[in-house]
Write a structure and sequence with these properties.
Two copies of one chain form a homodimer. The first copy, chain A, is of the alpha/beta class. Chain A has 23 helices and 20 strands. Chains A and B meet through helix 6, helix 7, helix 8, helix 9 and helix 14 of A and helix 6, helix 7, helix 8, helix 9 and helix 14 of B.
């Protein structure tokens, strides 16, 4: 079958089961080839081939509306809805994003990249349909670890009150990114073991009707069940059991490392761009594993992304009870570390910068109002981390630096990261967050302190005059290079490592006024609500000019990091240019 | 029984059941009298008298540790743990806060005021206990609507994986603040109707063991059940059925209006300081109910606090299907309004400013990345709203104004609020939040526009020279008074209503430079991440001085609003003083 003959779901509806089976097989092959050359979410999509075809056979998209959770398992949906060429033609691989996107297709209703949102988003589509007298089916597709997030439970709870059509397809592959964690997974297992017949049923307990499909990779069972629930007049869960990674043996054998893949060699399954170079994740993991042996109350908490923070299966086994994965449930992670800290433990919560947003209230209320001395380490921060609009690391300073009571530290280099982490774990006064720079740790020839208890104390790295550059975290390296460029032009700027992004050093900033006319701040995040804005505010009624280098507040999608940095002067040359302008 | 003889839980342990029953009765009487004179959470505490006594009889606080959800039902716990005088001696009523507070007592482990956090916080206490080899009981007490929040479900899910002591007392009074909403409440009803015997059991589906107490206001059953689960070696839910408002007939008859009460007359049950004066909630409700009749796709969404936004039982009945209460579940509310907006509906989400924090990620990802034209109306904003540290309305600008794509409007008066709300509902371009001022709407003699589609366009209210005052929302009235004070001293400031707090009007700010030397901004929120900081940043490299009036970033607890405003010049006199200083 020629995959490119599938231009829309209508083209599926004439096919026999045999032809559909061949289509599934061909799509799987195309998917494996694309991911091997381009990278992307792998195992989740391989498991959903048949289910996605069955959904498009039975329902009438886009009149009937699908909402894919996280939408990292929407690749087959994209193939079937006019975007096949982006999967079979390597020149067009980048025509599509890794997530659903209304700008790409009328079959996509939301740009989604965070977990656990599909039921809630779809509940809104259903509510609007009912008010407007519509009759279409609304289908949320959730699973692959997404069920453990609070928003998903809230969505189930609301869906349980509905009196009209609402279909939730639960893709149960018995996995999250890594293995599942949570009491509900025992119930899913019970349901699998009883062919869906167990009386104790999580979904029924939420007020929902329920169907079970034992083989969620079998087209005919799926089609039959979806036909049964199509146009149903009440909310229902269709629980399908699928195999993550199906069709690519190494992805079935090692599901965690094939959840998302960079380009790899199909013959050996080896990642092409794998690196053994230390990352902040590996540095932190080594430090903590060592420290755990001496301090049994040290515990690392993570919400379903252990690989992001360097806790792969080997490290998790070594940490034992001193590592907790709560599943994709950041609110739980935040509150839990507060509780650990309040009962004599030393918790470290490692979290991706984009996901920390999911626990704003818990950081503010559960941790900071209680001044619980928990340590939070943020990963994938800054411009050079992830670049899909749903996964950006450029909003963390605006969020965390304005929550009272939270100390937010930005290490400039490896040694400073280690010092800050050691200090934070040992202290018992305040919640501390530490911003790891992306992508790779650098070594800098600067003095690193071991004690950060004097809050908001900046450090002068190099004394100069006229202009001072205050560079946050990873930007210090660029500021030092900018200083070299400027010295060649006869300008000798003072270089400052603020270390803290959650406040300013009033004493040092005041002292600068003696022999400086201007200050340039640099951060790799948005300006609004950020660090430079605090410096600008400090000097606002004083005789010193401030130029804040950073990103304008907006959403950026699939950008080229170097281009973005150059556009906004977030480079050594850019910093030097802005200094000269002043 | 002399209540003041109870100095600590140890004093309970010698008492007979008869004496304990008398104690309960006396505490209830004291509680009713205190609330009638002082105000506070009423129905929730009246229902929990026996359960709290039984907990303290069976467990050994503070070695065994209780975490009360929201902690609005912890008054009896306070009475029993050394704080009785704050409930029986009217001179000492204010010795205690309305929530648990570690500064008050070693029996309190967290300062809590938001919903659904107890299980997660307690899970951390339990984890630290296990790592440190402790043996104490950890008990989370949750209910009264708190179960519907995502954090509570995440907590149940994590608790379901525990292999050691963990006790969750679910106080099922069949109510939230108003009536319950959510599919789980059908399951709780089934459990009540089957005396806890139904096979389909929400808590067991989360992997938890389970006990049921049919009469949760019966001391002896409670004591017997708590004895049974004391020192248990695995996680368990004790589901107790209590009567909200028990012991005060009007609070039983009308549970919603007695959830929290201001001072009232015990003879008539009439609130002493009730007012029929319009509030922003009542203004919004009237407008929307009228508009709903013409626009069937207009729908108001709220997360468990309908009274806060003016939708009391009468208004809810009138709105019918066009009002949705999702239970206390702000993430669901945020995503749902996005879904409604994406399917042709016109959603308005009314939410308390302190609770909007619970949906930061959903506002950013589910609403703003998708540019869903939903309307959010924030209540209880500013300094003069709620003053417990857990319920402050001073962080909303720092949060909302730095999320890309969100338009945050601050109306200065009633007419402007109405105009902004009408515009927001009608437009289909962007998510819009509107900040209602606290406490009461004012009328101002200013020109009000009907169209706000030209984003970040400020309005000059009164032309002057030398100094401009940019006053956010409710502060405009104070700025106008300040202008009068200044005119008497020969200063004629320009007065500006920014209308937008999520961005600045570069054109207008630039034009001010022609004949102004300084700008003063005023907002009733924290400075860090706020509106004035954006203005300070705009002028940072220009020849104009900026003075930002607002609150330093910190937590404020049970402050006197007038004192706080005076301390930080957030008054007409303060503004005038700051202008003169420049």
């Amino acid at each position: 079958m020629n995959l490119e003959s599938i231009k829309s779901p209508a083209d599926l509806k004439q096919l026999s089961v045999g032809e559909l089976t061949e289509l599934c097989s061909n799509m799987r092959t195309a998917l494996i080839e694309k991911i091997s050359r381009h990278g992307g979410h792998f195992g989740p999509n391989l498991g959903m081939v048949e289910a996605t075809v069955a959904l498009h056979i039975v329902f009438n998209s886009p009149v009937d509306k699908f909402v894919f959770d996280v939408s990292h398992q929407s690749y087959i949906h994209k193939m079937l809805t006019g975007r096949m060429s982006a999967f079979v033609n390597s020149d067009r691989y980048d025509d599509v994003s890794g997530y659903t996107n209304p700008h790409e297709s009328e079959h996509d209703f939301f740009n989604i990249g965070h977990t656990s949102t599909s039921i809630s988003l779809a509940s809104g589509l259903a509510k609007a349909r009912d008010l407007n007298g519509g009759k279409e089916n609304i289908i949320a597709v959730i699973g692959d670890g997404s069920l453990s997030g609070g928003e998903a439970f809230e969505g189930l709870d609301t869906a349980g009150t509905f009196k009209s059509n609402f279909i939730i397809v639960v893709n149960d592959n018995d996995m999250s990114i890594a293995e599942n964690h949570g009491g509900i997974y025992d119930n899913l297992r019970l349901l699998r073991e009883t062919n869906g017949k167990a009386e104790c049923n999580l979904f029924r307990a939420f007020g929902l009707d329920y169907r079970f499909v034992n083989n969620g990779n079998d087209l005919e069972s799926l089609i039959a069940t979806f036909q049964e629930v199509k146009d149903i007049d009440h909310p229902i869960v269709v629980h399908i059991v699928t195999e993550k990674g199906r069709g690519y043996a190494p992805a079935v054998a090692d599901k965690e490392s094939h959840h998302w893949c960079g380009p790899f060699d199909m013959a050996t399954d080896r990642q092409l761009y794998d690196s053994d170079a230390p990352s902040y994740a590996s540095i932190m993991t080594s430090m903590l594993l060592k420290r755990m042996k001496e301090d049994k109350s040290l515990v690392v908490v993570n919400a379903g992304t252990p690989g992001v923070i360097g806790f792969n299966p080997k490290e998790r086994a070594e940490a034992g009870d001193q590592f907790v994965d709560v599943g994709i449930a950041e609110e739980q992670a935040a509150a839990m570390v507060s509780g650990i800290a309040r009962n004599g433990g030393h918790p470290v919560w490692g979290v991706g910068a984009s996901f920390i947003q999911r626990a704003y209230d818990q950081i503010s209320q559960d941790i900071c109002i209680n001044a619980s001395p928990a340590t939070i380490v943020t990963f994938y921060t800054g411009i050079r981390a992830l670049n899909d609009v749903t996964h950006l690391g450029i909003y963390d300073i605006a969020m965390l630096s304005n929550i009272p009571g939270l100390v937010y530290l930005a290490p400039t280099c490896r040694a400073e990261f280690e010092a800050m982490l050691n200090w934070s774990i040992a202290q018992d006064k305040a919640p501390v967050a530490i911003r790891t720079a992306s992508p790779a740790p650098v070594d800098l020839d600067i003095t690193v302190d071991s004690d950060y208890s004097e809050l908001n104390k900046f450090r002068v790295v190099s004394e100069g005059s006229d202009v001072a550059i205050i560079a946050v975290g990873t930007m210090l390296a660029d500021a030092l290079k900018a200083a070299e460029l400027l010295k060649a032009k006869g300008i000798n700027p003072t270089i400052i490592n603020p270390r803290f992004v959650s406040g300013v050093d009033a004493e040092l900033l005041t002292s600068l006024m003696a022999n400086h006319r201007a200050v340039v701040t640099v951060e790799d995040g948005i300006i609004d609500g950020g660090f430079g804005a605090k410096v600008a505010h400090f000097y606002a009624d004083k005789d010193i000019k401030v130029d804040v280098i950073g990103l304008p507040k907006q959403f950026y999608d699939r950008y080229n990091p170097q281009e973005l940095c150059e556009r906004y002067d977030i480079t050594a040359e850019g910093i030097a240019r802005r200094v000269q302008r002043l």
